[in-house]
Amino acid sequence: MTQSTTSTAQALLKTDLPLPGRRQGKVRDIYETTVDGKAALVIVASDRISAFDVVMENGLPGKGIVLTQISNFWFDRVATELSGSISHHLISTDPADIDGISDEQRASLERRVMIGRKTKVVPIECVVRGYLAGSGWKEYQQSQKVCGLKLPDGLRQCSRLAEPIFTPATKEQSGHDENISFERACELVGTELMTTLRDLSLKIYALGHDHAASRGIILADTKFEFGQTEDGALLLIDEVLTPDSSRFWPAARYAEGRDQESYDKQYVRNYLEELVGEGKWDKTPPGPALPSDVVQNTMAKYLEAYEALTGRELEL
User: Which candidate, 68, 86, 72, places its Cα nearest to that of 198?
Assistant: First the structure.
């Protein structure tokens, strides 16, 4: 596996570009621009890392690059394999296409920026689950349902489901997203739109699942975001099928009935749970600084995910 340079590289934790409309999420900084006279967004993936909905004091050098490159890989596949079903927001990944910033600022954005069409975001997280994990497993234990869907008796933690299920959630500005039923999602945004989003989400999940399986990886679940253009066209937006939005497990080490190894920030979560257990942190902001071994081990997982999924190496 390609060795990362996390020991010497500096994490990009914040950007301050001279562009309008700046807003900051847990990981991404977003600005407004225009491309060919149409409204667009500059989406910069920082190296910030969050857990339990709290951003940590330090980041993972290169994480934003890895996330962006994974998303670009999947956007290309979606455009190629589902061209008749869905388009995506991505216009360019070249900082040279951004007007009004300096050469130094462009250099800082290399490989970590997406220029995408601006859309009206559909306020629903489109979650697809092929396995029973996370909040789905917790809900099943209480009611044998997930988002109102009745599941068979006797399923275990991380059991594979007979068919992938669509389990929407609300998009919350702060705190955890809330799982809701498909019927409730229809009430919020309309039945026709929600039915279309469900069918598209299942198609994209199937594409991702089948490719990941061919690479020895299980795509357990994932979430998508969609937006609508001014003329009503639906676009796949944000990130897609990354370790931050999906559960990827090594297929060779999968076994139901327990937590799985995963290509994500589990090292961070484990470290933070230790702090919580010791009474040193209570899962509220500000997030603590992560020690170097947690940073390096977590970053190695992100790189491993990229290389396993794409078959390419990524130098940082």
Answer: 86
Contact (Cβ atoms closer than 8 angstroms) between residue 282 and residue 276: yes
CATH code of the region 121-253? 3.30.470.20
Residue ranges of domains in the chain:
1-118, 121-253
The CA-CA-CA angle for residues 150, 155, 160, to 5°, reads 95
Distance CA 260, CA 254 (A): 6
Integer Cα distance of 127 and 222 in angstroms: 6
Fold of 1-118: Phosphorylase Kinase; domain 1 (3.30.200)
What the block records as the tokens of 61 is 């050098």
pTM: 0.93
Question: For tokens 């969050």, what's the residue?
Answer: 50
Beta-carbon-side half-sphere exposure of residue 116 (alpha carbons within 13 Å) = 28
CA distance 88 to 222: 17
**Residue-wise pLDDT tens digits, 26-73:** 999 999 999 999 999 999 999 999 998 899 999 999 999 999 999 999
Report the alpha-carbon distance of residue 176 to residue 276 in Å, rounded.
19
Residues 6+ apart with CB under 8 A from 274: none
Q: How many CB atoms lie within 10 A of CB 85?
A: 15
